[in-house]
C-alpha cells in the first residue's frame, strides 16, 4: 500500500492540540470495553484458529534500528516490536522489499529485510516477503519500474524477474530464513512494471504472453529455491472477480489470493468480505488472506504529516477507540476464519508500528507518520488492546 498525504484543514489544527487530544482520546469508558468485548467473545474464539495471524512490520527497522525508538508493552515495560508481537500470539511478520530504495527508505532494502527476517525467525515466527519490483511504493495507481530496469525489453524484464527473484531467494536461503509466503508484486490490480506489464481486469489486452509470463517467471523462481513456499497474488479490494478469472484464463500460477481491505476505501460490510472471499476461493480452489487491513483507534494525531485514515473508516458498532479497533480486528478474523473448508487462512494488519517517530515536528509522512492513529500503539508508543485480537 502507498500512503497518500492528507492536508490538515485550519479547523482541524485549531480544534486539536496534541497534549489534550492524547489525554481525551486514549481515555475510554470501561462500560464500552465490557460491552464490545462481550459481543465479540465468540468471534475471538473462532479467530484463534486462523493459520496466519500477522502484521506487516516493515517500519520497525527504520524506527528501532535506525532511529533508536522504544516501544512498550501495555504494562509500560519496554520491548521490541517483534517481542511485543510474539507475546500477543502473532505468528507471521510481513516485510516489503524494493529493488533499490533511496536513502530514506532503507527499511525496504534487501540488507534490512535480511536482518529483520533473521530476527523474526529467531523469535519463532514465520516471515512473509512482498516483492514490489520497484524502487518505491507499488500499488494500483503506481507500478514504476526500477530505474536500473527502465530500458529493458519485455523479454529482458521477464528474465530479470527470474534472476532478481532467484537471487533474493538464494540470499534468504543462505542465512536460513525461508519465507512461508512470497508475494509477486504488490496490489497488482492493473499489473506491474508499467507500462510493459500493465493490464486491466476488464480486458484481455497484455495478459497473454506478457503479464502471464512475467508473473509465472517470478512464481517459478520462488519455487526453484523454495518448493514449499506459497506464492501469493495481491489485489487491492475484494471485488476481484474479473482479475482472478483472467488469471485462470491465461494460466497464471499462484497458491494464495491476497486482498487489501480497508473500510475507508473498499467497503464496510463484513458480509461482503465473507461472500467475496468464499466465492473466489471456491471457484478457483485457492486459500485467501486479508493481507492488508487497518482501523483507526482515534481521529487525533501527534505530528503534522496528515492522517490517511479517519472518520471515513467508521463502521457502525465499531467506534474509533482502542476497544472499537480491537472489536474490528476480532470480527474480521472471525469472518475470514468462517470461510468453509478452511479456505480463509489469515489476516495481516498493516504497519501497526508506524508511530510518529519524529515527534510533533514532522510535517510530511516521509519523515513522520500519516498512520499514527491506526497503529496498535498509543501516542506514548504503548501497546493498545488491539494486540489482544491476535491471541
Overall pLDDT level = 90
CATH architecture: Alpha-Beta Barrel
Indicate the overall shape.
Answer: globular
According to CATH, the fold-level topology is: TIM Barrel
Order of helices and strands: HHHHEHEEHEHEHEEEHEHEHHEHE
What percent of residues adopt helix (DSSP H or I)? 25-40%
- What characterizes the major β-sheet? 8 strands, parallel, barrel
List low-pLDDT spans.
2-47
Number of domains: 1
Relative strand content: 5-15%
Helical stretch tally? 13
Radius of gyration: 20 Å
Question: How many angstroms does the end-to-end distance come to?
Answer: 26 Å
Description:
Keywords: Glycosidase, Hydrolase. InterPro entries: GH, Glyco_hydro_53. This protein is an alpha/beta fold and 391 residues long. The chain has a single domain (32-390), classed as Glycosidases (TIM Barrel). It is 37% helix and 14% strand. The protein contains 13 helices and twelve strands. It has helices spanning 10-15, 18-26, 30-39, 41-47, 60-66, 81-87, 110-122, 154-174, 207-225, 241-249, 263-266, 270-284, 322-337, and strands spanning 52-56, 71-72, 78-79, 92-97, 126-131, 181-184, 191-192, 197-198, 230-236, 256-260, 287-292, 344-350. It has an eight-stranded parallel β-barrel with strand order 1-4-5-6-9-10-11-12, surrounded by four helices. A hairpin with a 5-residue loop joins strand 2 (71-72) and strand 3. Helix 8 runs parallel beside helix 9 (207-225). The protein is globular.
Amino acid at each position: 500500500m502507498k500512503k497518500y498525504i492528507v492536508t490538515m484543514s485550519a479547523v482541524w489544527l485549531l480544534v486539536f492540540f496534541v497534549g489534550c487530544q492524547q489525554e481525551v482520546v486514549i481515555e475510554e469508558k470501561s462500560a464500552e470495553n465490557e460491552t464490545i468485548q462481550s459481543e465479540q467473545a465468540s468471534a475471538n474464539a473462532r479467530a484463534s484458529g486462523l493459520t496466519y495471524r500477522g502484521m506487516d512490520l516493515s517500519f520497525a527497522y527504520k524506527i528501532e534500528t535506525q532511529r533508536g525508538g522504544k516501544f512498550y508493552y501495555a504494562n509500560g515495560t519496554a520491548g521490541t516490536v517483534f517481542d511485543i508481537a510474539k507475546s500477543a500470539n502473532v505468528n507471521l511478520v510481513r516485510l516489503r522489499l524494493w529493488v533499490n530504495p533511496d536513502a530514506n527508505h532503507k527499511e525496504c532494502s534487501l540488507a534490512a529485510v535480511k536482518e529483520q527476517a533473521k530476527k523474526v525467525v529467531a523469535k519463532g515466527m514465520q516471515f512473509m516477503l512482498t516483492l514490489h519490483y520497484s524502487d518505491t511504493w507499488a500499488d494500483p495507481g503506481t507500478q514504476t519500474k526500477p530505474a536500473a530496469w527502465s530500458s529493458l525489453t519485455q523479454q529482458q524484464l521477464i528474465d530479470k524477474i527470474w534472476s532478481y527473484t532467484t537471487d533474493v531467494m538464494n540470499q534468504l536461503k543462505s542465512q536460513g530464513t525461508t519465507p512461508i509466503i512470497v508475494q509477486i508484486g504488490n496490489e497488482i490490480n492493473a499489473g506491474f512494471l508499467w507500462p510493459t506489464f500493465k493490464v486491466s481486469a476488464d480486458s484481455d489486452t497484455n495478459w497473454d504472453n506478457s503479464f502471464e509470463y512475467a508473473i509465472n517467471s517470478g512464481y517459478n523462481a520462488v519455487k526453484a529455491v523454495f518448493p514449499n513456499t506459497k506464492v501469493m497474488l495481491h489485489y487491492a479490494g475484494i471485488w476481484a472477480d474479473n482479475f482472478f478469472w483472467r488469471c485462470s484464463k491465461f494460466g497464471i500460477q499462484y497458491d494464495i489470493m491476497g486482498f487489501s481491505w480497508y473500510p475507508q476505501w473498499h467497503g464496510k460490510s463484513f458480509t461482503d468480505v465473507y461472500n467475496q472471499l468464499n466465492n473466489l476461493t471456491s471457484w478457483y480452489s485457492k486459500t485467501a488472506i486479508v493481507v492488508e487491513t487497518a482501523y483507526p483507534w482515534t481521529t487525533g494525531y501527534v505530528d503534522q504529516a496528515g492522517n490517511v485514515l479517519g472518520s471515513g473508516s467508521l463502521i457502525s458498532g465499531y467506534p474509533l477507540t482502542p476497544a472499537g479497533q480491537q472489536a474490528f480486528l476480532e470480527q474480521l478474523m472471525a469472518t475470514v476464519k468462517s470461510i468453509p473448508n478452511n479456505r480463509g487462512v489469515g489476516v495481516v494488519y498493516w504497519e501497526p508500528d508506524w508511530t510518529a517517530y519524529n515527534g510533533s515536528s514532522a510535517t510530511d509522512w516521509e519523515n513522520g507518520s500519516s498512520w499514527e492513529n491506526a497503529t496498535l500503539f498509543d501516542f506514548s508508543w504503548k501497546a493498545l488492546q488491539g494486540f489482544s485480537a491476535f491471541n
